[in-house]
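Page 42, continued from yesterday. The earlier attempt failed because a stray header line got pasted into the input along with the sequence. Redoing it now with the clean sequence only.
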Amino acid sequence: MDLGFSYVGLIYLIMLFTPNIIWSRDLPQDYEKYAANENKILLALERTGEFLVSGLCVIFSDLNIGEIRPWSIVLLASFLMMVLYEIWWVRYFRSEKTMKDMYSSILGIPVAGATLPVAAFILLSVYGGNLPMLIASVILGIGHIGIHLQHRKETQDTDKNESNIKE
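This time it went through. Structure tokens are written below.
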């Protein structure tokens, strides 16, 4: 692991934070209701992972593009996941912006808004051979994906209850 600035990490953070900043100004209906019920352990893991990944991804230069070799396919796969994450956000912003939209899948990837960036950071850490980044990404994944799965289940339960009431 080589300490130094990672422009790839910075690009990933920009790709990650830009849609989230836009989203924070236009939350899905009933979001606060669901957020109030978040599992505190998952929330702590998510926040810890966010902090660690955000810092670690920019301080290791071995995450940058090196010489092109077969192993570079891992970096390409990671970047493609971030591009797909951006596409998912475009689809979300064009939707009705419901909780169901927020926890939707894309190309069969469940809760894509959480799964794609976590997978991208895991692959980035594998590409760079960076164990601290890998550990931080897994911590982030447990919390972030866990919370998204919890919210998705709650939205499905709400849909079932509303359907039963209408019958």
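Notes: Residues 7-159 form one domain.
Reminder to self: strip header lines before submitting.
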